[in-house]
Amino acid sequence: MSSFKLVHALLVAASVRLAVAQNNSSCTEIRARVSWTNLTSDEKTAYINADLCLINAPAKLGVEGAVTRWDDIQWPHVVQAASVHGVGAFLPFHRYYLTAHEHLMRTECGYTGRMPYWDEFAAIGRMYDTDMFDDQYFGGNGTDDGTYQVIDGQFANLTLRWLGDGSVKDHYLTRINDEGALNQTDQENIDKCNAITNYTSAWECWSGGPHSAGHQAISGIMGDGTLSPGDPLFYLHHSYLDKLWWEWQKLDLPNRLLDMGGPNIPEAGSQPGGPSGGSNGTGVASARGVPENPSGHLGGTGPEFTDYFGDNGGNVTTLNHTIYMANILPNVTIAQLMDLNGPVICSEYY
Ligand SMILES: *[C@@H]1O[C@H](CO)[C@@H](O)[C@H](O)[C@H]1NC(C)=O
Ligand SMILES: *[C@@H]1O[C@H](CO)[C@@H](O)[C@H](O)[C@H]1NC(C)=O
Ligand SMILES: *[C@@H]1O[C@H](CO)[C@@H](O)[C@H](O)[C@H]1NC(C)=O
Ligand SMILES: *[C@@H]1O[C@H](CO)[C@@H](O)[C@H](O)[C@H]1NC(C)=O
Ligand SMILES: *[C@@H]1O[C@H](CO)[C@@H](O)[C@H](O)[C@H]1NC(C)=O
Ligand SMILES: *[C@@H]1O[C@H](CO)[C@@H](O)[C@H](O)[C@H]1NC(C)=O
Ligand SMILES: *[C@@H]1O[C@H](CO)[C@@H](O)[C@H](O)[C@H]1NC(C)=O
Ligand SMILES: *[C@@H]1O[C@H](CO)[C@@H](O)[C@H](O)[C@H]1NC(C)=O
Ligand SMILES: *[C@@H]1O[C@H](CO)[C@@H](O)[C@H](O)[C@H]1NC(C)=O
Ligand SMILES: *[C@@H]1O[C@H](CO)[C@@H](O)[C@H](O)[C@H]1NC(C)=O
Ligand SMILES: *[C@@H]1O[C@H](CO)[C@@H](O)[C@H](O)[C@H]1NC(C)=O
Ligand SMILES: [Cu+2]
What we know:
GO molecular function: metal ion binding; oxidoreductase activity
Number of helices: 12
Protein name: Di-copper centre-containing protein
Largest sheet: 3 strands, parallel
Radius of gyration: 19 Å
Number of domains: 1
Order of helices and strands: HEHHHEHEEHHHHHHHEEE
Shape: globular
Bound molecules: 2-acetamido-2-deoxy-beta-D-glucopyranose, copper (II) ion
Number of strands: 7
CATH class: Mainly Alpha
Keywords: Copper, Metal-binding, Signal
Region (Disordered): 262-305
InterPro entries: Di-copper_centre_dom_sf (IPR008922), Tyrosinase/Hemocyanin (IPR050316), Tyrosinase_Cu-bd (IPR002227)
């Protein structure tokens, strides 16, 4: 059975209580993704509760050190941090990662609502003019006592496990307000990326300003290139970034459903936690002792790793490139992720 079919078998098996009819060959009912502000208050509460459900559920992957299902879903990002950033697979990996998180919310925690994104463009200059950071939802800034621990909201005192090298040490969710950074996803930067007509150049544009915007505006764990999915806000941020990529694809859909490129091996210094730079824990995490040298990362360090990417051992990302989700979902190729409306993702942004 191809991994493509396996994804579908899983989705089909899981869809009984969803208002989603899927079968092996198609995406028959596209799931809507909307701005957080457009969720109903019931959906907002259910969404938060589904993340809390993962946080309170025991780990299942069998990765040493994992305690909760939340540790499990963070793991594919932690273990591959060096091979899914600064590379062509950056956007496809994160697209599939959103679906992996959604899959766990729906199949293990009964979430049936729409998936939210954080409309960061709309939030420029008024980041806190929303209920998102309220006590009943994600909570707000970390403390100002130097630990930056998040102590309010539904994720107050959330305990995370992974450090930047894949080793394990309990630490708290942290945030440091830097709302000015949201302007990196302003109209000028979005237009600049949209003006690029090939993926080989465009991926890097999205990976720059618009990607940094939400990570930096929240900072703390969200500002750490390896550990950021520890913050539940990560998924709303990356969904917004994925929306920008999809909107770019839709500007010339027939061509851009097939347009892939970029390197498999990041430029020196561009990957998180890398020996020569990038995010090494972005302040807080560093201060909390995140080691600088990643040893647990899959890939990203040399040609010996490119073999299993499926790109014929080369340094150029192709549609054949394998995206690995640490057995939370089956391996797929980038080709299967290109169409947001296709069977694997089966979603649309509104
Ligand atoms: C797939 O789903 C669609 C819509 O529910 C249905 O019309 C079609 O017959 C299904 N195909 C198979 C092979 O089950
Ligand atoms: C879907 O795929 C599974 C696994 O390959 C297979 O057992 C099942 O019969 C397929 N269902 C349809 C409707 O094609
Ligand atoms: C989201 O909310 C805005 C403002 O309340 C509204 O204009 C827009 O139509 C809504 N979008 C959807 C998809 O419901
Ligand atoms: C976070 O801190 C900023 C700057 O002090 C403040 O404007 C904002 O209201 C705070 N947000 C929350 C949700 O407490
Ligand atoms: C979170 O931890 C702080 C101090 O570490 C404590 O004062 C507070 O009661 C805790 N809050 C929750 C909801 O556990
Ligand atoms: C964002 O705002 C900061 C501070 O006002 C400014 O220095 C920076 O140039 C702005 N960046 C963009 C992309 O507008
Ligand atoms: C891709 O776009 C960039 C920036 O617009 C341009 O410099 C480059 O020549 C283009 N590459 C190809 C292969 O079209
Ligand atoms: C792969 O591409 C990146 C970015 O262009 C480059 O920095 C790196 O040196 C290349 N690696 C190899 C092994 O060719
Ligand atoms: C790592 O972070 C620390 C603390 O923020 C900083 O002093 C150091 O220069 C950083 N190292 C690299 C290689 O970026
Ligand atoms: C993908 O793999 C297939 C089969 O191995 C091969 O025919 C095709 O040329 C590859 N495509 C790319 C873009 O590398
Ligand atoms: C999935 O991908 C990973 C990394 O590319 C590879 O190590 C693993 O063997 C693949 N698993 C399957 C079942 O193909
Ligand atoms: Cu990432």
